[in-house]
Amino acid sequence: MKKTNALERQRAVYIGGAAGVRQVVPFDGAALELRAKEKMSAEAFAYIAGGAGLERTMAANLSGFDRWRIVPRMLRNVEERDASTDFFGKKIPAPFFLAPIGVLEMAHPEADLAVAKAAAAFGVPYIFSNQASVPMEQCAAAMGDAPRVFQLYWSRSNDLVANFLRRAEACGCSAIVVTLDTTMLGWRTRDLDLATLPFLKGMGIAQYTSDPVFQRLLDESDPAPRPKTKVTWDAIRTLLASSRRYPGGFWGNLRSGRGLAAVRKFTQIYSRPNITWSDLPFLREHTQLPIVLKGILHPDDAKKALDYGADGIYVSNHGGRQVDGSIGAIEALPNVLEAVRGKVPVLFDSGIRGGADAFKALALGATAVGIGRPYCYALAVNGQAGVEELLDNWFSDFELTMGLAGCKNVAEVQAAGTVQAV
Question: For 352-375, b where at least 16 C-beta lie within 10 A, e where not — what string?
Answer without folding.
Answer: bbbbbbbbbbbbbbbbbbbbbbbb
